[in-house]
Write a structure and sequence with these properties.
Structural class: alpha/beta
Radius of gyration: 25 Å
Helix content: 40-55%
Shape: globular
Strand content: 15-25%
Number of strands: 16
Largest sheet: 6 strands, mixed
Strand order of the largest sheet: 2-1-3-14-6-15
């Protein structure tokens, strides 16, 4: 027995080791191809199709590095990612938006892409776009798609009214916009409908045109909220259109953009401020013969400047295959592929080469109006603010909603954004 037990034990251990060699799958066994999990948030049919096509093309050309497409959702991405990071189950390649990255970057969940990305990619995307994914000394994502906020207008209504129709070269001012929406209103119809289910990002991003900043970073690196003159222009315009002029229906303030389209098509509102990508829904849903057009958002002291939070692609810090993941990003975001992704999502690419593609500069569906606005896009004010998601949900969203409905005044809005907001942000900056 003393002679046979060690032999038996050795045989059992050998069998166990052989069995475990196949437990972790082909990506990590050392005997098969590497497998990268790519979680995409594409949701429009065209966009999902393009993403899956590009994954298929990569896999056909790279038998040793396979990419697995995983479908995610914008509705739950923050909480889902946080759970997967903490559980050690995050996908290798992560699709998100730049204003959701700060806490993940500072928390050590995302890989610093400095030195991982090829010069071709880093030089093709403007510095202002890279600023949206730079936190401290690191770069934690690749900004690849963006969209300006625009006015989608009933072209027949505008032409019949005789008002001046704005262009990117000669936009309306915020004061002119208010006057025109009042002029267009009456007989149960409204000059504009504001879908502000998420009022914070829309307000802050448009406020850059008026010089609004809201978040101010001091010499010590800490951020404080200051609601100043430039920050008041856009909220006051919306408030006055709803409460004073009755040129915007208050009933739609809590609605999403898609909720306004039936009324827009029915001729209830002359204009709806929406993201540029909503054109896809309008093309699909508009009644036959409905004539619409894209107008630039109003301009303030800073012209057509507005904030954006580009869609991003990041690599998980825990991924054992960062170089392979970076190579896939380079493939996915080559100029021709970036054009395909932009067309599929009805958005604008950040890459300058892709943005110059004729397919994105056509007058059909007003692509040319959007590309004319690309140079005016800047990082959203909240990009690098730690604690922004909590500030937005607990402080800013209810404060703006109450102000826009007329429940509170401008002074109380300022006090809540500053006093309550700074208490929230302070917890993240100790």
């Amino acid at each position: 027995m003393r002679t046979r037990c060690p032999l038996l034990l050795g045989l059992v251990l050998a069998l166990l080791l052989a069995s475990c060699a196949g437990c972790s799958g082909g990506g990590d066994s050392g005997t098969g191809p590497i497998t990268l999990r790519f979680q995409s948030l594409a949701w429009q049919e065209e966009s999902v199709e393009v993403n899956k096509e590009l994954v298929k093309e990569w896999n056909a050309a790279h038998p040793d590095v396979k990419v697995e497409y995983v479908q995610g959702s914008w509705d739950s991405v923050h909480d889902q990612l946080l759970t997967s990071f903490e559980g050690g189950e995050a996908p290798d390649i992560i699709h998100d938006a730049s204003d959701d990255l700060a806490d993940f970057a500072y928390g050590g969940f995302l890989a610093d892409l400095t030195g991982l990305l090829p010069d071709r990619l880093t030089s093709d995307i403007p510095r202002r776009s890279w600023e949206t994914v730079t936190f401290g000394d690191g770069v934690y994502g690749v900004p690849f798609l963006q969209e300006p906020r625009v006015l989608i207008a009933n072209a027949t209504w505008l032409k019949g009214s005789g008002v001046r129709v704005p262009t990117p070269e000669q936009p309306w001012t915020w004061a002119e916009f208010r006057r025109i929406t009042e002029q267009l209103s009456g007989d149960g119809r409204y000059g504009v409908a504001w879908p502000l289910k998420d009022p914070v990002s829309a307000t802050l991003n448009l406020s850059l045109s008026a010089g609004g900043k809201l978040f101010h970073r001091g010499p010590d690196g800490k951020v404080t909220v200051r609601f100043e003159a430039g920050d008041e222009v856009v909220p006051r315009t919306v408030h006055d259109q709803v409460v004073e002029d009755r040129s915007a229906p208050g009933s739609l303030l809590g609605s999403g953009g898609s909720d306004t389209l039936p009324g827009f098509f029915a001729g209830k509102y002359a204009m709806v401020p929406l993201g540029f990508s909503y054109r896809q829904q309008i093309v699909q849903q508009a009644p036959k013969g409905f004539d619409w057009q894209v107008l630039p958002a109003p301009a303030g002291a800073e012209g057509l400047t507005q904030g954006v939070s580009p869609q991003t692609l990041s690599i998980a810090e825990d991924s054992p295959h960062k170089e392979e993941a970076a190579a896939f990003l380079d493939f996915l975001l080559s100029p021709p592929h970036m054009v395909r992704l932009a067309l599929g999502d009805w958005m604008l690419p950040t890459g300058t080469t892709a943005l110059a593609d004729p397919a994105l500069r056509t007058t059909e569906h007003d692509w040319a109006t959007g590309t004319a606005l690309a140079a005016h896009l800047r990082p959203a004010p909240a990009q690098s603010v730690r604690g922004y998601p909590e500030w937005k949900d607990k402080v800013a969203t209810p404060a703006f909603q109450e102000y826009y409905s007329g429940a509170i005044g401008l002074g109380e809005l300022r006090d809540r954004l500053e006093d309550d907001g700074n208490l929230v942000l302070a917890r993240y900056q100790r």
